[in-house]
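Technical annex B. To support the medicinal chemistry partners, we prepared a structural model of the target in complex with zinc ion, based solely on the information shown next.
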Amino acid sequence: MTMEAEEIEKGVYVVGGAGISHPADCCVYLVDAGPEMVMIDAGAGPGAGSILKNVRDLGFDPSRIGHLVATHCHIDHIGGIAWIREETGCLVIGHQEDRDGIELGDPRLTAADLYGIEYWPTKVDVVLEGDEEVMKLGDLEFRFVAIPGHTPGSIAVLVDLLGVRFLFGQDVHGPFSDRWGSDVGRWRRSMEKLLGLEADILCEGHAWVFRGPEVRSYIEAQLRRHQHL
Ligand SMILES: [Zn+2]
Ligand SMILES: [Zn+2]
């Protein structure tokens, strides 16, 4: 799959992913919140330089990245954080339940051993603890929604921008493993929660972007796919 960094809709961009930064990278998204930009996840690490190049190629100065959201503690999402934080000075947002994976880097929690990539642990500056939190970053309100299941500290991010409701729901599709504390029952409830958010666009962690009715049908298809677990 040959893909490029691109605008999804005005103000929201995909700047990383398996086809555009490094084969091990999750999809990495960037939201232009006016005074600052917010990055969602950072890829596995080896592609971090190419992610920042993509940011520059889209016409943005990476030093505008003020916050980076770690949606959960898997290396394909957080491996690039240490590097990007060093380059940009951004603050990292993550959930308490996945904090050990991000800050201490236990290879079972990060799955770094499965990827065969060394993980550079990084601090979580803004620790989310509850089910939901709204934070103003730049000019936009970011709603952080706990979606435990894939990992205990998985979070989704909801942003309304120019009348479009974006949902950043990484690894909505699983997979599940005791290695990183998956809980399919909690995951089902989390997916029901996502369906209730009525997003116009779902930016997923590996399956790219879904629009309109595809958002609901993609999440429902995952629920059906895992119904016997
Ligand atoms: Zn994951
Ligand atoms: Zn992933």
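Notes passed to the chemistry partners:
The longest helix spans residues 184-196.
Helices lie at 48-57, 75-78, 81-88, 99-104, 107-110, 112-115, 184-196, 213-225.
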